[in-house]
Every structure is written in structure tokens, then in C-alpha cells.
Design a protein that fits this description.
With 524 residues, this protein is an alpha+beta fold. The protein has 3 domains: 1-32 and 82-201, 2-Layer Sandwich (Alpha-Beta Plaits), CATH 3.30.70.1050; 241-337, Chitinase A, domain 3; 355-520, Trigger factor, domain 2. It is 42% helix and 18% strand. The chain has helices spanning 26-29, 75-84, 110-125, 140-146, 148-171, 225-238, 283-286, 289-292, 343-348, 355-389, 396-417, 428-456, 462-476, 480-489, 493-511; strands at 90-97, 101-108, 180-185, 192-199, 215-221, 241-244, 255-263, 275-280, 303-313, 319-337, 514-520. Strands 6, 7, 8, 9 and 10 form a 5-stranded antiparallel sheet that branches. A 4-stranded antiparallel sheet has the order 1-2-4-3. A two-stranded parallel ribbon has the order 5-11. A hairpin with a 5-residue loop joins strand 9 and strand 10. It is elongated, with a radius of gyration of 37 Å.
Length: 524
């Protein structure tokens, strides 16, 4: 009787039969107890841990000769085992699917399937009891009928990984996840149809694409005297003191001690935004623009209200535009007193003998910062051109993993630093889509860099590793051994070496591509 399983029916998880597994007899299925033979009372108890009899207590009885060791398998058995690892098949079609998925459609000769099925049925028969037949003597036809569905899945689960691995080896591809049987068609006497999906590592060959000699133009911030002066003034402001301002109104650069109360449009208090007797040293940065706009000219004791637009989600998840009412009470005006910018100020910072040394350090730090920004911008421009030159689908599992990391990082920043990660007016779905896009780009860049490292035979030597550890130790004022011990304890040695390899590839790209830098007074 032909098997009428449909080709479009997706395969279910294997209910596979293991060799030697007891199968229910017809009596058991009817609820009739099968007599259990008495156990050999002389047999030694078996250890629940080792599954072996416990060691015998020493006696004066003559030693019992050991059973002869089981001989190694015959060459014929080895050949048979090797044959089981091979499957004859014909590739019908290969399809590249999104997410770096390879879909293989193949057909397996009926003889291949049937031979394996017959062998499996014989194994099942050894432990199966069917009414009217002695144990292990039931006809294969009856065994096949009883276990038709299970044996079908068992044989398919045995065949398709072998087929997938052979196809991957032929295509010189590496799998990221295990192959998945997505469809099958089994009919008595007919070739067996199988559809297999497997996520693979993209086979990148940047050698076919010139990843050197790429021309990019980068705008670079110019370190000017004005920029240095701005940084010095920022240091002054951070070290300022605030004194009560008697008889005057609020002016630019003043601080203010303020009470804040906030209500939504229904008059309900938003208590997490309430502040009492709070000193705003930089009202222009720390208060909503609508409030700061009203502060100039206000005196101690002034009270005023402003309405500030806001967006909230209703119970149905819809974004609603609302207006919150902010009630402001100015308790005190504070005058900002800046320290004198002289040698004493430089000494108070703890690292400098005079103002000249402080100014030189500021210039040095600014130059390092703009160099790093320009380096990142140049790499970003090169990556963009490489992605355009080497188009491929990033593996979906890699993208999902990076997306999860990015979202977790954003949530950690929110709770640690209060940094909002959702853009104003952005829905949850739009935020997740943005992170998905960022993750896909990151995975593509990572795989391209790995491919270039292989092509150029770039590696991280032990000397490279030791040198970087020593540099970190010197910067942190610790011993190199302590740095290495901490990394080993946290399991970060491999990721650390990976980061060093990434930097080597980045340096290679910067040295072997045509990058022009244009200094500008102000970056847009």
C-alpha cells in the first residue's frame, strides 16, 4: 500500500526509535500485563553511577578468570558502518534565501530509503512483541504498519544531515546552524523528495574585489586657538562656584534654585518629574527650552507655568500627542563665579605646573580626539564602499544576536546614565527595525574584515598580545600579570585577541587606501 504523505507537509520533530528501545506489545496496548520473568537473584547489584557492578570484596577464594575481551569489529562491519554514513542522492535545485540560508532540494533513490528502513525494522523487531508471534519473530510487514510514521521520520532524520553535509562540503561552505528538514515526500517505490534548509557562513572572496586603492575624502576638525579657548572656558565653568544674587533678575550664565511640579492634561501629577529646592547650574542645558526661554528677567519668588508638548501611548498602544503643564517657582537666583584662569588654577587641577602646560595638554587631547574621529570616519567610508562591492546576505542568527546586544546596551545606558535610546516620535517597531539594520551592517563589516584578514594572512602573535597588555597595564598603573589574570578569569582572552586582529585589519585598510583629509573650522 503506497505511502500517501504529501510533499507539502512540513516534517515534524523526530519521534525517532532508538535501536534496542522496547516497543509496546499488542497486549500492553490493550491494557493486559505481560508477565515479567524473575530476576536473577545471584546477580550483583549495579551501581547507579557507573552502571557497573560494585568492586568485589577481597576473599581467599581462587581468582575468577576474566572474560576474554571483545574482539575488534571485523573489516566487513567497519565497511558497513562507513556505508551508512553515505547516501546516494541527486541534487534537483539550490536556492539562496534571505539570511544566508541555503535551500537544497534533492531526491533520494527509493532503494536507499528502503534498505535503511528494512534494517531499522529488523532492529525494532528484536524487542517487539506482537500478539500471536514470539518476541523478535513478527513479520516485518506488521512491524512496518505499526511504526510507519515513526520509522519514516527516523530514516529521514538519518538521511538529510548526511546529504546536507555532503552538499556543504562540495560547495565549500561552513554551516552556522544545523540543517533543518523543511519538507519531504515519501511514496512506496518512488524516489524520496527532501527539502533542506541550512544557515551558512557567506563565502566571501574579497580577492575578486579590490579592497585597496579605494579613494575617500574625509572632513577633519581643525584644532584652532578658539577651540582650545572654548575647552578652557568649559573647565572654568565646571569648576565655578555659585553665590546668591541679591536684588537682581536672572541673566545668562546665572544659576537658579527652582521648584518644579508637572501635571498632564487631565490634571494628574507626574511625580517622577517633580523637583524641590533644586539648583540648576546650567538651566540652558538642564531645563526644557520652553522653561528656560521664560527665565531671563525673572526674580527671586517668581512663579509661572508653561505647557510643553509630549507624546504618550494609550492603553491600545497608540501614540497620542498631549500637553503637560509645568509649574515653576524660582526660589533663588545664583551668580556664577568663574575661577581666574592662571597658573594657580592649573595647579588646582592637580597635574600641571602652570597654565602653559594645561593649554598644551588640552591641545594634545583635542588633536588625539579629532584624529580618532577622522580615523573612524575614514573606516566608515571604506566599509560603505566595500559593502557595495561585496554584496551578500548576513547570517540571520548573527544579526539577531547583535540586535539583542544593541538593545541590551541601550537599556543599560538608560538605567545607568538616563540616556534615552528611542528617538522622539519613534515607535517601538521603528526602533527595533533601526537596530536590525545596524546589526546587519555590523555583521557584514565583521565578516568582510575576517575575509581580508585571511586573504592578507594577518594574525595576532603572542608578541602583539603581550605588547597590548603591557600598554594597558602602564595606562592603568597595574602589573601586566594582573591584567592577564583578570581577562582569563572573565573569559575575555579570545575576544581581546579578536579586537587586536580587527585593529590590524583596520590599520591595513587605512594604509592601503587613498584617504584625503580636509580640515574644517566646524564639522557639520
Amino acid at each position: 500500500m503506497p505511502d500517501e504523505e504529501k510533499f507539502t507537509e512540513p516534517a515534524t520533530e523526530s519521534e525517532g526509535l532508538k535501536k534496542g528501545q522496547e516497543q509496546p506489545s499488542l497486549d500492553e496496548e490493550r491494557g493486559v500485563e505481560t508477565p515479567i520473568p524473575p530476576e536473577d537473584e545471584t546477580a550483583a547489584p549495579v551501581s547507579p553511577v557507573t552502571q557497573e557492578p560494585p568492586a568485589e570484596t577481597p576473599t581467599f577464594a581462587p581468582p575468577v578468570s576474566k572474560e576474554p575481551e571483545e574482539p575488534p569489529p571485523a573489516p566487513e562491519a567497519k565497511e558497513e558502518a562507513e556505508e551508512e554514513k553515505k547516501v546516494s542522492f541527486e541534487l534537483v535545485e539550490t536556492i539562496g534565501k534571505p539570511g544566508s540560508i541555503k535551500e537544497y532540494k534533492v531526491i533520494v533513490p527509493w532503494e536507499e530509503y528502503d534498505n535503511r528502513l528494512t534494517k531499522l525494522l529488523k532492529e525494532i523487531r528484536k524487542t517487539t512483541v506482537i500478539d500471536g508471534f514470539r518476541k523478535g519473530k513478527a513479520p516485518l510487514r506488521l512491524i512496518k504498519i505499526r511504526y510507519r510514521k515513526q520509522t519514516k521520520q527516523e530514516i529521514l532524520d538519518e538521511i538529510f544531515p548526511i546529504v546536507a553535509n555532503e552538499l556543504l562540503e562540495k560547495d565549500e561552505l561552513s554551516k552556522i546552524t544545523n540543517p533543518v528538514l523543511v519538507d519531504s515526500k515519501v511514496e512506496e517505490g518512488q524516489p524520496v523528495g527532501v527539502v533542506i534548509n541550512v544557515e551558512v557562513l557567506p563565502k566571501l572572496e574579497p580577492g575578486r574585489v579590490d579592497y585597496t586603492g579605494i579613494a575617500v575624502s574625509i572632513k577633519k576638525q581643525k584644532v584652532t586657538d578658539e577651540l582650545i579657548e572654548k575647552q578652557i572656558k568649559e573647565l572654568q565653568r565646571r569648576n565655578a562656584t555659585f553665590e546668591p544674587k541679591e536684588g537682581g533678575s536672572f541673566e545668562k550664565d546665572d544659576g537658579a534654585v527652582i521648584n518644579l511640579e508637572v501635571e498632564d492634561e487631565r490634571g494628574q501629577e507626574i511625580k517622577n518629574l517633580h523637583l524641590r529646592n533644586y539648583l540648576f547650574e546650567r538651566p540652558d542645558e538642564d531645563l526644557p527650552p520652553e522653561i528656560y526661554k521664560e527665565l531671563p528677567g525673572k526674580e527671586k519668588g517668581a512663579k509661572f507655568e508653561v505647557e510643553i508638548p509630549n507624546e504618550r501611548k494609550n492603553p491600545r498602544g497608540e501614540v497620542m500627542s498631549t500637553k503637560d503643564r509645568w509649574k515653576v517657582e524660582v526660589l533663588e537666583i545664583k551668580k556664577c563665579v568663574l575661577p581666574q584662569m592662571d597658573d594657580e588654577f592649573a595647579k588646582d587641577l592637580g597635574e600641571f605646573e602652570n597654565l602653559k602646560e594645561l593649554t598644551a595638554r588640552i591641545r594634545e587631547n583635542l588633536e588625539k580626539m579629532v584624529d580618532a574621529q577622522a580615523r573612524d570616519a575614514a573606516l566608515e567610508a571604506i566599509y560603505k564602499k566595500l559593502i557595495d562591492k561585496v554584496p551578500f546576505e548576513p547570517p540571520v542568527s548573527y544579526v539577531d544576536e547583535h540586535k539583542r546586544r544593541f538593545i541590551k546596551r541601550d537599556i543599560d545606558r538608560l538605567y545607568t546614565f538616563g540616556i534615552e535610546f528611542v528617538k522622539k516620535g519613534e515607535t517601538k517597531e521603528e526602533y527595533v527595525a533601526r537596530k536590525q539594520k545596524d546589526a546587519g551592517k555590523t555583521v557584514k563589516i565583521s565578516l568582510i574584515l575576517d575575509a581580508i584578514a585571511r586573504m592578507e594572512k594577518l594574525e595576532v602573535s603572542d608578541e602583539d598580545y603581550e605588547a597590548e597588555v603591557a600598554r594597558i597595564a602602564e595606562r592603568e598603573g597595574r602589573k601586566p600579570l594582573a591584567i592577564k589574570a583578570k581577562m582569563e578569569a572573565e573569559g575575555r582572552v579570545d575576544s581581546f585577541r579578536d579586537s587586536l586582529l580587527t585593529k590590524k585589519v583596520e590599520d591595513f585598510l587605512l594604509e592601503n587606501n587613498n584617504i584625503t583629509y580636509e580640515e574644517v573650522e566646524q564639522l557639520s
